[in-house]
## 1
Amino acid sequence: MARPGVTYCDISRAAEAVKARGSEPTIDRVREQLGTGSKSTIAPLLKQWRNNAALNESDAGLPSDLISAVKSLRDRIQKASEEAVEQAKQDYQSQLQTLEHTLADTQKELSETLGRERILNQQVTDLEANSRKLNGELNGLESRFAVTESERNALQTRVQELKETVSELKGENRAVRDHFEHYQQRTAEDRRLERDQFQSQLRQLQSQAESLTEQLTHSQNEKAGYRVRYETAQEQAEKVAYENQELRHRLESFSSTIKKLESDCSIKDKEIVESERNISQLAVEVRGLKEQLARKSVTLESFETDLRKIREYADHLEAENKEIAEEKAVLQGRLVQLQASLEAGK
């Protein structure tokens, strides 16, 4: 199909001009004369011109009617050819415009496709960067998970050690409690024995005091100085008389001795002095017993203080164990969250 703007007439005029210069019309010379057109377009039109020129040269020996008919036919064919060429040009222009529109649409679609491709490439780049970031975070989480796992193992080991320590302390606490209970029992038994001994000695003292009081009562008429001591002894005798009624029987047994004391005042004086000495000794023994009881009370308080410290230490260990259990629960929750995050990342 001929290019727009290059027709047979153009080729014919260009060939005639070349021939007029005395040169043979060739494709290159005609193209040079036209200044446009391609060889594939010029070649068939130039061949058609040569055929027409040869036909014109051969018309010299033919009748004029035939020549006129042939020229008329040639003109009609030429006209039909030009019309066909013009129609072909119009079709070409229409197809060219359609193709240009199609090309524009295609270019637009291509541009949009390239834009979408650039967006997709950018998204792919972002996804790759995000993937690398997520891989880095995953590696960090795996490292943190490994550290957390080691910490969890260390905490489990510590918890186990603390449990063993608590078990040992509980055993020691039970041993201390058993020892303390045994000590309490022994202390109670010792205190009971000491109290019994003290009460026995006190009863003996009371018995002797009552005896001396009776002696002082019977010797009151002989010596007025004994009245105050008698009243004091009588008050002591009244205080302890309700504790043991058997002393009254022993008091009756001493009645004969009291009658002898009434007969001899000097002997009574010596016996009173001796009795006062005995009372002083007994008072010293009572003070010694009280001091011994006070020392044992201090020892008991020391044991109670130690027991209270042991109980406080056991409570502290139980509180620490509770805190460790809470830390373990928190770490287990963090571990579950990390595992869930890892599974979600996968």
## 2
Amino acid sequence: MGLIKAITDSDSQVVGDQFKEFVTMPAVDDNVLIARGIVSQGDANKGATEGIISNGSKIAVPVGYAMMIIENGAIKEFSAESGDYIWENSSEPSIFTGGFFTGIGDSIKRIGDRITYGGQPAKDQRVYYIKINKVLNNHFGSQQPVTIQDPIYESIEITYNGDYSFQVVDPATLVAEVIGTNPDKDIITAEDVVGGQLKTQFSSNVSTAISNLMIQNNISFNQVQGYKNDVVKIMNDLLDESWIQQYGLEIKDVALNVNASEESREIIRSMDSEIAKTKRMGKVYSDNMAGQMAAATGEAMKAAAANENGAMMGFMGANMTQSFGASAMGAVAGMEASAPAGNAGPTAQPGEVALAQEVPVKEAAEAESRFCSQCGAEATGKFCSKCGAEIK
């Protein structure tokens, strides 16, 4: 009952001799989503009625399309399997799902006679063809920069653009929504369906999808392109109510390009430079005080070589600095150690050096006054403070 697969052989007569009517899909462009079938009257149909598909009529379903018969505002029959069928009007439809639309029967029951063609119940039978292949090359893009929170660069502005494809996953829902409000249109394009509000909803939700993806995977904005499957899933979740439930459409692929605005690029370049510098220095240099002291000593050595009083004077200053640095580091290290047992003299407080250790050094220096053999100046250290010569 309902649709019966037609079996014809090469010796069969012309269609008009075999069938009362022959319904075919018109020649359409790839962007056509829904097309009304063309009914040709056969010679065998002597009592054809306008708007009624007679019992015994032949209906052809091309590859890549589903076919739907609507009678008096209700979906009577459906097939997503290509081939030729014989129409036998009955109360129970024989649904051919094509292996894809397993829930189409439930959709048909749910919709009932919703397709009322502008508010008035239809008085005829119509055949519609629905594209079930992916609809490709749908462009989108942000109209202005959008501010997002990046895990590395913090608050930045981005722009985005790309292409997406979608597919009809519930033909009954699509036809009921679109044909019910466009009863006189024989051709419905993809632009007619998604070119307005649905496209705006898609574009406006891309920035939300980008932010969600960055948070879920702890990635920066410039890594989003590598998560195509995740982008598709998030977009379908965001568009479930408007795209899937209302129109029976589902996003299948998204090719996404994300770029920072010119102002944000300057911030990113500056931060990338600092990040690269920190990596070159190494974590020990950036976090460890000893590493920082070593770097400071290196800078002091460079300054000593350029000292206007002579390199020797510069290096003497550097030696004094290094000695003080070593003492300071020793003091810092000693801060965490326990004080020695017994009365060993005054104990240095955190950040201080015990003065008792400095007195003998000072007295010894005053007791041994010497003179430079080169310039005769009084010297108390190992080198002359005037000419830099070594005191022997």
## 3
Amino acid sequence: MASLVLMIPGPTNLSDDVRRELSEPMIGHTSPEFYEIFKDAHALTAKLFKSPPEGTVIISGSGTLGMEAGIATFLKPGDKVLSLITGYFGDRFAEIARTYGANVRTLRFTRKVDVQAVEDELKNGYDVVAATHIDTSTGILNDIKSIGEAAKAHGAFFFADLVSSLGCTEFDFSDGVYDYVYSASQKCIAGPPGAAMAAVSDSLLKSRADVVPRSYYMNVRAWLKVMSDPKVYLSTPSIPIIRALRVALREVFEEGIENKIKRHKELGDLAWRFVNEAGWRPLSESPSPSVIAFDLGREIARDVKEQMLKRGILIATGIGEVAPRVIRVGYMGWTTVELLYNTLRAIRDIAGLK
């Protein structure tokens, strides 16, 4: 079976070295070899977050697991939570927080989060504010540092979703405005799906020390103990995924994080220009360095996706009510300018025939 070129908002295409690592023979999770691999992957994850290693975890699972782990570990029933929604994954945070008994209010934005509107709402008093850095359903890029500053000014903890941004945007956990952030292996880092990564502030750990985690597996505090010594057994980690994640993280730093950010910005600018020149409407008001979602103006998205599949390229349609009209193209990881341009040109050609 011929392999597809993935131009979706994750998972991404993998490098040859990452693919080779996935094909290596299995080793034991208690072996000295895996101990060193896990320690190195953890150190590289902390380096990418720019977070203290003692507050950084890797848990086998999806990005949603990283989201739910923070809620299950640190939120109390009745907490007032403000979820800022610029797409599907802001709604997901709100839904999970409600599942755990939080009192959730949402602010919905059709473009990026209006920080002044958040400031005004925070006057009503909240325990936690949550926002998505880049929502892959819309391609909207938010100024999460400013949102975090607003949350801190009003005494709230700030949770940020970095699933589609970590590794292709500027981010520094040490800025001091973040309390819990989470990401995943299969987006900008260009690893396979299956590893959730998170960083937690010392302030949140101390202030919520009396909270009883409502999950055994998704207990961030328990995983912090494993990170300090991977010989501590909690559950069997996904060995091939963590091995491949380690390789992908090494590749991030071999390219240079500044170079990687610059390259993704150039891709985002290219996608933005092309979509606008084609006469389509981006769902975001500015370029995103990882994904673009755009309205074709007609309900032909599924047909376009099927025709692209025949060309060996997988793209995504929209989410929700706009799905029949919207195409989403991801360009995280190792996407080149040529590959992105050819993908967009093929979409234009196919859409023009409909």
## 4
Amino acid sequence: MGDTHLISNKKALYPVSDFLRTYLSRYGRIWADSIRYDDLGRFTNAIPVYDEKGFDTLWSTVLYSDSERTEIHEKLLNAYAILKADGDISITKYLFIDRVDQCNHGNTLPFRVRVVNRINENFDYFYVKKIDANRIYGLELEHILSPNRINYFIHRRTIVEEHIIGIPADAFLKEDLPITDFDRVRLAKEFVKFNERCFVSLLGDMHSGNFVIELTRDFEKWHFRIHSIDFDQQSHHWRKEVYLPQFFHQNDPFLQLTMQNLAPENVLQYQKEERSLIANRVRVSHGRFNALMEVMREDIISTDSNIERLGAQLALHYRDNRFETCDTMGEIVYQSIMLLLESSAPATSPQTRI
């Protein structure tokens, strides 16, 4: 069963170094002029947002004075144009900002912006958040190592992120858990692969509130894919279990589903498959992974104590002493990927993991 107390304290926000900014500029992640997080903080009131069943969503719609609203909405539309069309403001001709919400919990108190097309009432979301180096590294590693492409940009101390489509996993567990044997096997397989990706890249805190389920209909029922949506705990915590979604009690239904529908040899097979896919993505990244690692291996995104303790745990886990000599979290991630490239075999037997 999952551990209920994996992360007890919020982490500090780590600044984006000049070297990381150079990397981000190289790959088109920096924009010279856009909305700032502090701009959205100039609201005069906030109203709680409840779901259709009357439960508090932990988001509040924020309200601005007339003079502030015009300026802020214009900047938000410009930010949306940057995300969707490389700054071509003409795409916003028929768009308007319908709502700005702020999350009342979490590490960075993000803002969620709802954009609506006035012609057909179609809508989209994007997010404005405080900048944090851990989050940036998480987004970049997700973009390179996972099957999911990530679209975002930064402006000074602000990060603007595209909405990641999917059903929040905690809501999925309540309402959409598949009932056919075939679908349960497919979902269990995806959870094993997601568990493996998080552990290899050291993406932490993936409880069911921090990832979504994307469903795609194909000619044989449904295909499931799990997307991370929160990257605040990328390579920061000292506990190995933080980087394994199976250990969060919120994910117990996924764990039980896996244990009930997959034999140990199937788990081992899917772990091997995912590690091989990650290795192939690194090989075809055209140097982007190496460029990222050059920066991340020198950056400070955690404490010395966290680095030392996690390195010792991974050295024991992998039976490889190279982790004990790592001086940064980036170096630990690098060694994890190097180990994967050397051999696509899973780190442990299925008896000690899912």
